[in-house]
Specification:
With 220 residues, this protein is of the alpha/beta class. It is 50% helix and 13% strand. The longest helix is centred in the last third of the chain and has 15 residues.
Length: 220
């Protein structure tokens, strides 16, 4: 299947470069371009792309607000944030807004293409530990909350699912979680899929954000 990509960046030359890279791929098609967040949200609603490649620092409506609008209005479109630094507040805000991952602007073309394919397949494009570092660095921006025991959403989970979510929030991979909880890796994947469905989360990144927001996992 062809992955339909919407390109969002306020620099025309960068959009041209991304278009050239995507055009060379048999399984990708650039379906539109936007130079600001408002236009990106409008086009996402019209074009329904599989992936939105989203710059965050743009004049007018920035990429964070655009991500919120796209996630709310076109949930089938996955957003991949482009950022300059791997631990900056824009990447953090993008994940909280519903992005499925982020990528550095200086990534190699093959890394960009792999990230687009992963996001289109439903995976998150952020290393678990990088997500944890982001959240720990910017945890002061999280809502104060009332503590994990008081959040009714966690009541939807079984004890084992809650244990798995805690380890996901701590930045462990499925393999590491399997070792810690003495489970088969396939079982961990099954639990994680059930967690995502019960909590109506898009992917692993959103599960990590949820674990911090509910204080199931607390910054060190």
């Amino acid at each position: 299947m062809t992955i339909r990509v919407l390109l969002v960046d306020d620099e025309p030359l960068l959009r041209m470069a991304f278009t050239m890279v995507l055009d060379a791929q048999a399984d990708m098609e650039p379906v539109g371009e936007a130079g600001d967040g408002a236009e990106a949200a409008r086009l996402a609603g019209e074009l329904r792309p599989d992936v939105v490649l989203m710059d965050v620092r743009m004049p007018g409506t920035d990429g964070i607000e655009a991500t919120r609008r796209i996630v709310a209005g076109s949930p089938e479109s996955k957003v991949l944030i482009l950022t300059t630094f791997d631990l900056d507040e824009y990447a953090f805000a993008g994940l909280r807004a519903g992005a499925s991952g982020f990528l550095l602007k200086n990534a190699l073309p093959e890394e960009l293409l792999a990230a687009i394919r992963s996001v289109a397949a439903g995976d998150a494009v952020v290393a678990p530990r990088i997500t944890r570092l982001l959240l720990e660095n910017f945890a002061h921006q999280l809502p104060s909350g009332t503590g994990s025991d008081d959040d009714e959403r966690l009541g939807r989970l079984t004890t084992r699912e809650r244990e798995v979510l805690t380890e996901v929030g701590r930045g462990l991979s499925n393999t590491e979680i399997a070792a810690v909880l003495h489970l088969a890796e396939a079982t961990v994947k099954t639990h994680l899929n059930r967690i995502l469905v019960k909590l109506q989360l898009r992917d692993r990144v959103q599960a990590v954000v949820f674990a911090y927001e509910t204080r199931l996992v607390r910054p060190r």
